[in-house]
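Team,

Forwarding the record for the chain on the shared tracking sheet. I've put the sequence and predicted structure together so nobody has to dig through attachments.
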Amino acid sequence: MSGLYLSQGLFPKDYLRPTLEFIVRSQEDSGAIPWFHGGHLDPWDHVEAAMGLSIGGEHVAAVRAYRWLQDNQLEDGSWWAAYIQGEVENTDRRESNFVAYVAVGVWHHYLISGDEVFLRSMWPTVENAIEFVLRLQTEHGEIHWAVEACGTPREDALITGCSSIFKSLECAHNIAVTVGQHRPHWLVAREALGNALRNKPERFDRTWASKARYSMDWFYPVLCGVYTRGPARARLQQRWELFVEEGMGVRCTSDEPWVTVAESCELTMALLAAGDHARAVILYSWLHQWRHEGGAYWTGYQFIEDVMWPDERPTWTSAAILLAADALTLHTPASRLFTQVKLLPPLQQAEGADLSQRFKET
């Protein structure tokens, strides 16, 4: 199906029910949500899938997913990069944006459910995760992308990863305020990270080839609130022709003939964040031709070979479909999470040090 045009108040619940049920069926007894049955799990995509469950009203299943994170968090606040069927699959590294994303998922579920008991029970998990991530922030504001198994930082930063962390810090701050905790250094860290993303391009991709060919580096700073409104619209317009394939979606990379569904959903929300509602509606309408008959969505379409590639229908792609539909229709109280920046007023408590001096300008 193509041509599914969504607007406020018109969430296609019946149409997306099989998509939601695919995620429900994929969840393991432990609460883990792998990419697909028998596949591996990474913490970021596990959270993305859990957000899809919350949107669909599967609150018990969503809470089980967050309990899995709580049960598997390491002492330093992190998670390994990959797990499979209850075992750690990748002990090579722990990635900062994977770790931080728990804050987005927990806040998202709270916005939908209003479950303050859940929020308070997840607070230690969120706090420990965010503190792990902020230990990887440099004096320039960017955050190292990973640590080795032994905990040594891999000293470089990703625009997409740091943009995701920027949104995670917004959500973590809001969680802290809601549960009555004072963490002013999180806002200081967020401000420094945003400054690095906007004004210090030299701090990213320092030890590998530039990631500029990836569409996510183009739109994630908009999706995550680093750029808003006017600057956001200008940024999206700048590379639209390079990345967007009419009638299909957004390319994963500019140099490969491959459009991907999850990135197209995220670009849909980035367009909404930039105030470009018309193009958001149109882009999302293209994506349902990549839907499998069972309700799940293919990862992407290779339009030179005319094949779905890879031969996968990940849970997180289905979750992205649900997230974008929610953002377009304002179906749940969390529908604006990725289209607006909202920081709750911080708690006022005395501080013993001037945290603004933690970061120095270069």
